[in-house]
Automatic annotation (TrEMBL):
Gene3D superfamilies cross-referenced by the UniProt entry: YVTN repeat-like/Quinoprotein amine dehydrogenase
Superkingdom to which the source organism belongs: Eukaryota
Name of the protein: Anaphase-promoting complex subunit 4 WD40 domain-containing protein
Entry-linked InterPro entries: WD40/YVTN_repeat-like_dom_sf (IPR015943), WD40_repeat_dom_sf (IPR036322)
Length: 163
């Protein structure tokens, strides 16, 4: 009887991971930051309210992160010092389901179907409500140049221009 033996050699090469980090928000209300090179958790943030954190989005070319939770709060954090938030704001009391960052603006999709355009630099609402409460919960938001797409539980993708 012949025997076949297979030997699998797997190499995990890392390229340019020095100083890189991976962040994760979870349903237990924690934000965790991991060092990719060392594969260790380097920091974690627990919101003072036990409400689960839902979504997060990084801000391009800055060390900042915006997370949204079930209370409808947006929390702006500096990834280098996450123990004390830079800013906390509540636009609506409806849970936040999706976030999208582009050009100093954050689109915030809520469970009640409302999508809000927020400028995190000066705390202004740019277009109060992009969508209304007549839409299912906003599950995803994508922004490409001057066009914004939202998707919701009803299966429709909606397109908005110049937002």
């Amino acid at each position: 009887m012949d025997r076949c033996m297979f030997l699998y050699v797997i190499y995990f090469d890392e390229y340019c991971t020095e100083g890189k980090a991976l962040w994760s928000v979870s349903d237990d209300g924690q934000l965790r930051i991991f060092d990719i090179r060392n594969k260790t958790m380097i920091s974690n943030y627990v919101h003072n309210n036990p409400t689960p954190l839902m979504r997060g989005v990084t801000i391009d070319s800055e060390d900042k992160l915006i997370i949204g939770n079930e209370n409808g709060e947006l929390i702006l954090l500096d990834l280098r010092h996450i123990k004390s938030p830079l800013k906390t704001i509540r636009l609506l009391s409806s849970p936040i389901c999706s976030l999208c960052y582009n050009n100093n603006k954050v689109l915030v999709g809520h469970k009640n179907g409302v999508c809000i355009n927020w400028s995190y630099n000066d705390d202004t609402l740019l277009n109060d409500h992009i969508t209304g409460t007549d839409i299912d919960p906003i599950s995803s938001i994508v922004r490409r140049h001057h066009v914004t797409y939202t998707s919701s539980r009803d299966g429709r993708v909606r397109m908005y221009e110049n937002i």
